[in-house]
Amino acid sequence: MISNEEILKEVLPNNNNNQEKEAEDSDPLPPITHNEAIDYYDKLKKEALKQRFFSARQTDLNSFINII
């Protein structure tokens, strides 16, 4: 089992070495314009609604099959 000290060492932000290492390891996201961000948001929203619709349709189909 991991000790509390080890957990706190990893979680607390006062460890400068880890922060610098993580900053070097992570690739920054490419800059995008406000309009691009809105377009991406709209695409994600449409996809989420589509998934919700298909999930609801599958649930209705399952209910119908169970009735028969």
Task: Draw up the topology in text.
Blueprint (H helix, E strand, L loop, with lengths): L3 H8 L4 H10 L8 H34 L1
Helical proportion, percent range? over 70%
Task: Name the assembly state.
Answer: single chain
* Count of distinct strands: 0
Largest sheet: none
Report how far apart the termini are: 52 Å
Rg value: 23 Å
Strand % is: under 5%
Overall average pLDDT:
74
Low-confidence segments, given as residue ranges, are none
* Count of distinct structural domains: 1
Report the order of strands and helices: HHH
Discrete helix count: 3
Which class do the helix and strand fractions yield? Answer: mainly alpha
Give the CA-based shape. Answer: flat
Describe this structure in a few short sentences.
By secondary structure, the protein is an all-alpha fold. 76% of the residues lie in helices and 0% in strands.
Task: Offer a few descriptive terms.
68 residues, mainly alpha, flat
Question: Could you characterize the architecture of this molecule?
Answer:
This protein is an all-alpha fold. It has one domain (4-67). 76% of the residues lie in helices and 0% in strands. It is built from 3 helices and no strands. The longest helix has 34 residues, at 34-67. The radius of gyration is 23 Å and the shape is flat. The N and C termini lie far apart (52 Å). The mean pLDDT is 74.
